Give the backbone structure.
Amino acid sequence: MISIRDLHKSFDGNHVLRGVNLEVDQGETMVVIGRSGCGKSVLLKHIIGLMKPDRGNIVVDGRDVTRMDKQELNELRKTFGMVFQSAALFDSLTVAENVGFGLRRFTTMSEEEIAAKVAEKLELVGMSGAQTLYPAQLSGGMKKRAGLARALAMGPQIVLYDEPTTGIDPVLATSINELVRDLNTRLGVTSVVVTHDMASANTVGDRIAMLHEGVIRCVATPDEIMTSDDPVCRLFVRGGAEEPIESGGSEYV
């Protein structure tokens, strides 16, 4: 579903992505782990076409994102759902208006159809009856769920998650992880999850890829990566401190 080939990106001379290669199969959940500032979110922005690489290609469902014009990118993005780190809800809109935002803007659905779709997606994420609430009235976990409902509203083929458990307590994080896993299984979408939370990675991931110093250092199942022969991967996933993990100094997330 997603093929990333020799992807390079620099900012002001800082070579953040240095030849990323990664294949994401249709229907799987690929988790990209790595230290804060290693370029994980930069990679997500390339997949959805918000950034252009200096070199390399990203092919999504047979289409090269790096060669698309603005109109083609906008059409492609309708097949994506994006779950932002901070939920990124519009403060002045209700939960229903937030979840239905894309439907109202990009489809010809009637208000009754939009309301039904919003209710369906809110039920999926365990927020039935929350339509009239505003973001200021929601807990951190509820905001995450509302953001997930919005990402699913247009029936995406691919869902991108940027640090879905950041900023919430471990109990809520566990519920979000279980929800993500359950939804991916039920809906059959292809997902890419960026995180440095290994509990989250092990729960939601079919496979885990570690981004380190601008390249994918290893790709393995959750069980395999815990016993990896690669010392950098092993230290990161175990949280070990036998020796430091060297960094290229990137400050890009």
